[in-house]
Amino acid sequence: MTDEDGRTSGSRARRKRYAPRLSRDARRKQLLEHAQGLLRAGGVEALTMERLASEAGIAKPVVYRHFPDRDAIVLSLLRSEWQRIDDAISGLDPGLPWDEALRRAVAAFLDALGHRSSWLRTLWGTPVVEDARAKRRAELAQILSATFVTHFRVDSAEATTVAVMLLAAFDAAGRRWIDERLSRALVEALCDDLARGVVAQRAWRPRRAPQKPMRNSSPQALTTMLRGSHAGATRSELQASKSSRSRRTRSG
After folding, report:
1. How many domains does the chain have?
2. C-alpha closest to that of 66 among 109, 102, 103, 25
């Protein structure tokens, strides 16, 4: 027989040293921390369910109770970093000028990227990560576009196109910084100059009095929307995990 952490009981059981029992949330946090360590040490190929269980000092089935597969672990790590950025943005004053708010949002993005660069860069290029990042950029583009429409007399289609282009440029600049090809100061200056330059070159006229903020155009709305997206994704992961356990139970 085994307990909830996969420990085997009985006089004939092989003695093995296991980690202390933890609550579900604490165990999940511990597993993600160990996953970061494996990514730093050997990249995405080093992150396997068996090695993660070994690092955490638990039985492999316990890992599957929290994550159905490696992709779910990787996505959870990404969303944790995105949450750090969202929390920083949600603290911004809604009354800030658009360019100052954007400048601070870029700074929050670079802060999160810099602190986790040792393992984040190992995930770039993997299909599940690139798909998730594309969806994330699409969500952020909606918010940036709404911000432009709130502050300037600009068509929503043009504002959305500019938002998509700017976010792609910011993302590329962030990667160049992490790869140590550009300094952070230069990256921040380039992002700021690019955003201001587009607005100036397109001759967007400011509204005399900014419109009532459109849906999802404030920093607080950004965090609310993205948390909803994260929660939906987490529910999907849990459902997938339950289905996976059910299949293993039937097959066993």
Report:
1. 2
2. 25
Question: What is the rounded radius of gyration, in angstroms, for the C-alpha atoms of the chain?
Answer: 22
> Whole-structure pTM over 0.90, yes or no?
no
Q: How far apart are CA 62 and CA 46, in angstroms?
A: 19
Neighbours of 204 (CB within 10 A): 19
The whole-angstrom separation of Cα 248 and Cα 252 is 6
Cα separation, 118 vs 39, whole angstroms: 8
In the structure, what pLDDT confidence band is assigned to residue 246 with cuts at 50, 70 and 90? low
The 3 state secondary structure assigned to 70-110 is HHHHHHHHHHHHHHHHHHHHHCCCCCCCHHHHHHHHHHHHH
Residue 209 pLDDT class (50, 70, 90 cuts): low
Cβ(152)–Cβ(204) under 8 Å? Answer: yes
Tell me, yes or no, whether 242 lies in a domain.
Answer: no
Question: Phi then psi for 6, rounded to 5 degrees?
Answer: 80, 15
Tokens of 65: 């109770």
From the list 70, 99, 104, 66, the residue with the least C-alpha distance to 87 is: 104
Q: Specify whether 36 is located in the same domain as 146.
A: no
User: 188: domain range?
Assistant: 72-233
Rounded CA gap, 104 and 181, in Å? 22
